[in-house]
């Protein structure tokens, strides 16, 4: 399957700078999908051919437009049988990432050919409060990696304010401070699955509830081992209840009958779970729910019901 990386961020945050750095430096053959070809400022030195449908670059990468139908664009890529190492989608400044993720995962045919690999959001460190309306919150909530850009143009107080606001919305996201989108990260990182950094971050979190507008980021802890059957049912029932109001969910779980960490991740109603290689130390599990108008007490009661009492038989 071809990995798909989503690049989001408001106008002027630095998305085009990031994309030009990516296209100039990559060894991969990338298909860059943008909303409008005329609106993307690809470095002219990279362009070898350009028409109304696509731009061909000297390193084998191409750039094409969504043409108002991302699903159709994906189908056309499959039909052309062109081989790409990765698809990168640049969204418009106010785009909600959810429909793009759903385009891939709700279409069985596309799901056989493509998989989400990363959601990267570029934020202007000096414009943090401007980012905090509906779509801006969505872009932060869904992100796996945030480039907090233009840090050379703000004070240390403004930078700390921006980091705090981001963490309020998405407690588990990795934040990299950048200048001209250059910083301590790889241009292409497969971050859509829980990384080791996420695990370390999650393990340090304690029970909290942060709200920005109607969005809430709720962190819950369970101090006893959990039943795999119960916890899987619990997560699925929450996702079904809230539907698309759940933006992201991440958890590291201590099961009652397994020494390895059980890692769960969800986006909207899409859920994935796997065992990590590391042994889970202690009995504490951590769950982070990010979504609209979440009921913390109900989520906590549901998690509590997943615990296995000492006198119970082991559940699978």
Helices and strands in order:
Layout: E1 2-9, H1 15-25, E2 30-34, E3 47-50, E4 54-57, E5 62-65, H2 70-80, E6 86-90, H3 98-105, H4 108-111, E7 114-124, H5 128-131, H6 134-142, E8 145-149, H7 156-169, E9 174-177, H8 196-204, E10 208-212, E11 215-222, H9 228-242, E12 246-253, E13 260-267, E14 270-279, E15 285-292, H10 296-304
Parallel strand pairs: 1-6, 1-7, 2-5, 2-6, 7-8, 8-9
Antiparallel strand pairs: 3-4, 4-5, 10-11, 11-15, 12-13, 12-15, 13-14
How would you portray this structure in words?
By secondary structure, the protein is of the alpha/beta class. The chain has 2 domains: 176 residues, P-loop containing nucleotide triphosphate hydrolases (Rossmann fold, 3-Layer(aba) Sandwich); 109 residues, CobW-like, C-terminal domain (Hypothetical Protein Yjia, Chain: A,domain 2, 2-Layer Sandwich), CATH 3.30.1220. It contains 10 helices and 15 strands. A hairpin with a 4-residue loop joins β4 and β5. The relative contact order is 0.13. The mean pLDDT is 81.
* Total number of domains: 2
User: Mind telling me the C-alpha Rg?
Assistant: 20 Å
CATH hierarchy: architecture of the largest domain: 3-Layer(aba) Sandwich
Distance between the termini: 31 Å
CATH topology of the largest domain, which one?
Answer: Rossmann fold
Helix content: 25-40%
Query: Would you tell me the overall average pLDDT?
Result: 81
What is the top-level CATH class of the largest domain?
Alpha Beta
Largest sheet: 9 strands, mixed
Low-pLDDT stretches are: none
CATH superfamily grouping of the largest domain: P-loop containing nucleotide triphosphate hydrolases
Tell me the structural class. alpha/beta
What would the principal axes of the Cα set say about the shape?
Answer: globular
- How many distinct beta strands? 15
Strand order of the largest sheet: 3-4-5-2-6-1-7-8-9
**Helix run count:** 10
Q: From N to C, what is the helix and strand string?
A: EHEEEEHEHHEHHEHEHEEHEEEEH
